[in-house]
């Protein structure tokens, strides 16, 4: 359930006890209340009843907690948090009636572009920007699902790590499946044994083999194939949508799935609607966007993955003085999707991720070399898994260093069953014999449909790729307008003397 009944007040930032302002004002959470645009610290408060039934357990997740925060439940401090792009997640010991208090302060380290004058104060209000969720779970439940794709000689594999919270002695099996999303392809079904004592947290690892993987491609180079990975234990379930792409930086630019991809795109500052940023970039025929000095919400990465946009992700590390390099590295890995089940974006402070030769997961907001991310973790309890909602895909993804296969994947040239695929032409087009045809509106690869309106559409799960028409579609001839009389051919009139 979402916690939505909130009040807030500007407070003086100070250590110690929770703030106790004299006056509270109703506010919307998630959100950025403009009345506190000039405040250095804002306290948020909500009250709620215990939603658990029987022996259920409860977890709290705060997403977009900007920027430094302290959290109290019923007067007891749960913890502190300093990176808004990584969710704050806690298991709660609830009473019949509860009070949650969150104090948010202006950033001193991971504010990024929000700590500069490039963003108006109304966009940098200390607060809970993306969500506050209270979820209930069975006594034993799946807490997170983390994926690490990598290339092999036979195709690709996905290394899955599943965290299990055991509320009682456990000896069971987790069902794990991989299913194509929106296209025809092979899937995987596996089971993994899990054993743990009551109160323990167990991590189960399983390698899922994809014999003929379908890759995610940038816009204009192929389809954006994605897979749904599902883990299930009893009534608890986690789902992560991810894509597969091999991304590296060569001498002449980016190389995606073994093919050089000329990049064109923009640096984006944060706006009120992250999906609108992606839509603008896609309409401008971009295939790469840079999240300049900030980490957008999960919707940004999801939209980028669907639109075929790579994402160059900055680590928003700013501020004077020394900083913990190990801590910064860990946060970069979280942004890159290296340790969580939710988002996957490429880790970089101000430059694209270093070239690697491995396969990373998912275009749904991925970052780094390869692909990582996905629509993020979805659980039956609607709780996300330990990191910022990615949800996945499309950026320069992160991946483990690994030798590249001798022959990488090639752009798709297959067509639906019943048609014969033709090789890619020197001009860079893909052809097929399917009824629907496509052409480029410009040399930069924007596609427009040119098929006859009467031609039946291809099915959604078709694997056909954009094709260049071999001939111009015929247009139905319209009947010519005529007058009321019909013209007759002229006849030669012979002289009367020559008539018989």
Work out the helicity level: under 10%
Poorly predicted runs? 338-408, 412-490
Describe the biggest sheet? 6 strands, antiparallel
Q: Distance between termini?
A: 107 Å
Question: How would you portray this structure in words?
Answer:
The protein is 6% helix and 34% strand. It is built from three helices and 26 strands. The protein has a six-stranded antiparallel sheet, with no helix packed on it. Strand 5 and strand 6 form a beta hairpin. Helix 1 runs parallel beside helix 2.
Question: Which terms summarize this structure?
Answer:
500 residues, mainly beta, 6-stranded antiparallel beta sheet, 5-stranded antiparallel beta sheet, 26 strands, 6% helix, globular
Brief digest:
Helices cover 6% and strands 34% of the residues. It contains three helices and 26 strands.
């Amino acid at each position: 359930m979402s916690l939505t009944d909130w009040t807030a007040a500007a407070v003086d930032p100070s250590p110690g006890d929770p703030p106790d302002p004299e006056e509270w004002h109703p506010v919307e959470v998630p959100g950025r209340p403009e009345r506190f645009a000039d405040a250095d610290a804002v306290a948020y408060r909500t009250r709620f009843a215990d939603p658990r039934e029987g022996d259920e357990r409860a977890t709290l997740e705060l997403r977009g907690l900007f920027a430094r925060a302290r959290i109290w439940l019923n007067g007891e401090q749960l913890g502190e948090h300093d990176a808004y792009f990584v969710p704050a997640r806690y298991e709660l010991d609830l009473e019949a009636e509860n009070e949650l208090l969150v104090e948010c302060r202006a950033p001193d380290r991971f504010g990024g572009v929000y700590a500069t004058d490039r963003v108006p104060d109304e966009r940098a209000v200390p607060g809970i920007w993306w969500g506050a969720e209270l979820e209930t779970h069975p006594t034993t439940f799946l807490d997170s699902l983390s994926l690490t794709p990598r290339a092999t000689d036979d195709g690709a594999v996905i290394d899955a790590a599943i965290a299990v919270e055991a509320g009682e002695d456990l000896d069971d099996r987790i069902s794990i499946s991989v299913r194509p999303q929106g296209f025809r392809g092979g899937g995987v079904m596996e089971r993994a044994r899990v054993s743990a004592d009551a109160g323990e947290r167990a991590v189960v690892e399983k390698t899922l083999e994809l014999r003929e993987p379908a890759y995610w491609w940038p816009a204009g180079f192929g389809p954006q194939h994605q897979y749904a990975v599902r883990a299930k234990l009893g009534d608890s379930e986690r789902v992560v949508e991810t894509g597969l792409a091999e991304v590296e930086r060569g001498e002449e630019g980016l190389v995606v799935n073994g093919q050089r991809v000329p990049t064109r795109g923009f640096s984006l500052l944060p706006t009120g609607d992250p999906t609108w940023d992606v839509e603008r970039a896609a309409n401008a025929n971009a295939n790469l966007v840079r999240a300049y000095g900030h980490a957008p919400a999960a919707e940004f990465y999801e939209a980028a993955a669907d639109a075929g946009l790579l994402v160059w992700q900055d680590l928003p590390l700013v501020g004077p003085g020394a900083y913990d390099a190990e801590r910064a590295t860990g946060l970069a890995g979280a942004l890159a999707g290296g340790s969580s089940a939710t988002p996957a974006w490429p880790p970089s402070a101000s430059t694209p991720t270093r070239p690697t030769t491995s396969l990373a997961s998912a275009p749904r907001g991925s970052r780094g070399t390869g692909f990582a991310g996905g629509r993020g973790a979805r659980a039956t309890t609607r709780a996300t898994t330990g990191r910022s909602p990615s949800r996945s895909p499309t950026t320069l993804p992160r991946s483990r260093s690994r030798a590249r296969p001798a022959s990488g994947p090639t752009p798709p040239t297959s067509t639906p069953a019943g048609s014969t695929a033709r090789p890619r032409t020197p001009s860079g087009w893909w052809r097929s014999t399917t009824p629907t045809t496509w052409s480029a509106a410009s040399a930069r690869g924007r596609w427009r449909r040119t098929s006859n309106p009467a031609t039946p559409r291809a099915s959604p799960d078709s694997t056909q790729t954009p094709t260049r028409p071999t001939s111009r579609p015929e247009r139905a001839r319209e009947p010519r307008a005529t007058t009321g009389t019909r013209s007759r051919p002229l006849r030669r009139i012979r002289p009367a003397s020559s008539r018989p």
